Predict the structure.
Amino acid sequence: MHLTLTCLAVWLLAPPAFSAPVASPAAPARMMKWADSTRLGSPMSKDPNVIEFGGRYLMYFSLPPFAPKLAPANAPAGWSIGIAESRDLFTWKKVGELWPEQECERRGLCTPSAIVLGGKVHLFYASYGNGRKDGICHAVSEDGLRFTRDPSNPVFHPTGGWTSGRAIDPEVFPVGDQLLLYFATRDPEMKIQMLGVAGADLKSDFGRQSWKQLRDAPILKPELPWERLCIEAPSLCRRGDELVMFYAGGYNNDPQQVGGAVSRDGLRWERCGKEPFLRNGQPGEWNFSESGHPGVFTGRDGQTWLFFQGNNDRGATWFLSRAAVGWSGNRPKALTAEDFR
């Protein structure tokens, strides 16, 4: 069963395997489907990441290079990071952009992950366009809009014979006295995408000297048929004494779909089943090419939202959407169409 506008179903996340999908519900009265069009003249936004800060919600996302006819004279050549604002997590307005400033960002920056620590927004993101040399960068902001770059950027590259040294798709999450940094990397042949983890003291400045790689091996790598050659875009939340990770399986438009895994220590992860948690749509539906790159957000009211990206034209456009995640204990439960409100 697929996630569509008329049939919005996801699979129950519960070990050792996913349950059968819920019955096909009626379409919701409204559904978030948002994207910025200023770069291409058509909708194109990817890699959503949402926080609450300064009395509003901020969403950081990836923006493509400008189309030549729309590019200002000082336009960056590659990808950049957009910032959108909302008061209700449904209606969004772009309020800012991060363009390259440092040499490592010159060819592009993308896949943002933000966290509020000590009253400031710490943004982790990837340089992009440098192949094996792409790494994780860090910046800090007092208002969530204007950022000061870490002078030691990139602050992290993975090492070891299992990795090419490339790192993208950062996700940061506090566990004990550490800030854990999850990232996607590729094998030495640059074919297989997988996840790794590093850590830094929460009291550190998160500069290059702060990070220590915690495993000399991937914490998750493609094994299931639907994951194909790629696991990327980790996004975490905590439920009781467990961590829940949503991740993307399959490269863009393979189709990419969303899976789940759980951990008690943030280092050893166990899949919650053999099937995707969130599937792509059927032919003709808005998310036929993929439902991917998850970004999980839990509000003060305890409601958990899963933001994700989708398209039906193999990447000519990209939209961002969301689903309200319900829980059964520490496990997400099956959603109905009303959860995509």
Notes: The chain has two domains: 1-30+220-341, 38-176+183-216. Residues 1-27 have pLDDT under 50 and may be disordered. DSSP finds no helices and 20 strands in the chain.
